[in-house]
Fold each of these.
Amino acid sequence: MRGTSPTSAWSSSTRGRPHSPGRNPRRRQHDPRTGASERLPWNGKTVALPASFAAALYHAAREQAVGHRVTVSFPDSVDELTPNQVAAELGISRPLLVKLLDDGTIPSRQLPGSRHRKVARVDLDAYQKKKSTRRRLIADAMNEVATAGE
């Protein structure tokens, strides 16, 4: 893909400019004033990005390109989600989520004077991490049993 789309800028920081002899066009250009190491063309301007942010965007784009779901959230946000949003993010049905909320597996709070609930982003992230760790432990145990029998 060529042009000024955001995804095309990652392949080379010198896209659209002639290459100087002896200069590697894929080498990152570091700007000591801003701490930026990537430049992204955007709306006719060049935007400098911090190296860590550029790496995060690149990683997210790669994951999405292979079909993985990518969610961007801020660790210090006090974001709350509705049960429908939580069910969609977990890839489970709403009735199963309601069961998990009712038995306290995923903490939630009831809105004052209402039947509606909200789930804090940090609680959802903690549940996903716990579930991922449990799956990894089970897979490791299964691999151990399978290799012990050989």
Note: The longest strand covers residues 36-42.
Amino acid sequence: MRLAADHPAALTKSNSIVYSARVPKTIAAVWDGEAARAGMSRSDWLRQTVDPERARVTGARQPRRPHRTADPALLFQIAKAGTLLNQLAHQANAAAIAGSKADVLHTLLQIERHLDELLRREGAC
């Protein structure tokens, strides 16, 4: 006798878990191919294959979002600004303890100059 909570249509986050397993890439490729041929997502195919009587198909395979690329030079500049902000946070914490705010102001000025330089470059492009 099956309880209502055991019915596949009643699966929710509160009464189910995500079950994962590590498999060789060759096996994963075979399973992915089988799922694609069946027009199912990997999860739906595995549920149906492991326990066909209780499997709940949630829908067709969802297409992946296209991968977007970003300008590497821009990413570098953003990372550089992030590094400066991290340094500022460290100095602000140290200044709060030591009572010196000159180091924090110096770092803020460096960040401002760096961002101004970025804006000038973008305006020139």
Note: The mean pLDDT is 76.
Amino acid sequence: MEIERNFQSKAKLSLTPLIDMVFLLVVFFMLTTTFASNEAIDIGFAGDTGEVRPSEKDSIIVEVRKNGLVTVGKKIFRHADFREHLRKILKKDPKTKILLTSSSSATVQDVVIIMDEIQLAGGSDIIFIEREEK
């Protein structure tokens, strides 16, 4: 005698609704996320506005050199020492203009780091000038 067995097929789980929910969540989080705003330093280039180069008494010339060295006048500083020196200068006269130039061996990253140091020291009036050949 043969007994007939009923085989029940397993219930199939459809992944389509799950994928739809994942995409909906991704879109939701993309739309509701706020991104950090970048702060920028307002810089000018000498000659952009037709202004004459500021005089030596109301400005300082900062030359960026390679390997993170900075020259102010005839003194050479590293980044951290430069910030403290500049902070002292700006404490005496906060309206001091900073004329920024770089040597041919300085990288763009060196210049950006020095611009950050100037901002951290409280400087806000930065003007790029062309390096004078000696």
Note: The radius of gyration is 31 Å.
Amino acid sequence: MFSFRTLPCSLETARSALDSAVRADPALTDLAAVGAGVSTDGMRVAGVPVGVDAWVKNFVAKKAQSVITDVAKLDVVSHGLIHTQLLNFCRISRMASLGRNTPTPLLSEFMAQVDATIVEAVCRHGTGGGHADWTPYLRKFANMKIQVPHFRGGFWITPNECSAISAFYSATCALVVWLGSHGGTGPAQHFPDAWAPGLDLTSPDSWHAPLLQALSTSHALLFQDYGCVEWTSESDRVPAPLAFSTALPFVRPSVGSRNSPPPLSTDAYPTSYALSEYS
């Protein structure tokens, strides 16, 4: 993010200049209507917070609270399937967008709050409040079934606290690959120099930009806590630009990994499930 601290003027001067520009140009009146101003801490870009950590965390906290408030409003929906779909495709997706574009350490606690609220809403709506009498073991089992994928017999209401890690990692890796594969001879084609000046995108140890440091942190977290592994041979790697037709090799995770693959045979699953109104 561009910092106004580098400008040769005070914050008051910058704000005054913006106000004058808005008043002088009728085409900028919309800026006044949306409360546009000058900030040294952060700004929202396409709905995504960009700025210092404290500002970003405050933004995410407010967004999480807004989602939690909206979850309660859905209790008036009587149809179980519609209720669950509204939670899954409207409420969870709002936080998922933040997870894709915001370093995970800045929003994990807020993601967890929203995840817990949504799971509680599903249980409350599906049991008419009877879940309050469940044992801790039964409640933990229900939470798991709500959040695991369909192929494991769950409702696939993905917890953003976990999925945000891989979402941010994948999106940021795609940006790095794109920047690294779009160099050219013309000034307008020097994407790496314009977007990541002074950085060697092929050398993660040299990265000092906050976004790229967060990418390295996510990489280490996926290895340490989720059992992910590197592709081990040059022939396994996807060339840049990405070839979507390339079939990625199957790499079995380490023993005990959280992301161990499902059985290839359906014989491992029971022939039927006790289906609820959400199925």
Note: The first strand starts at residue 42 and ends at 45.
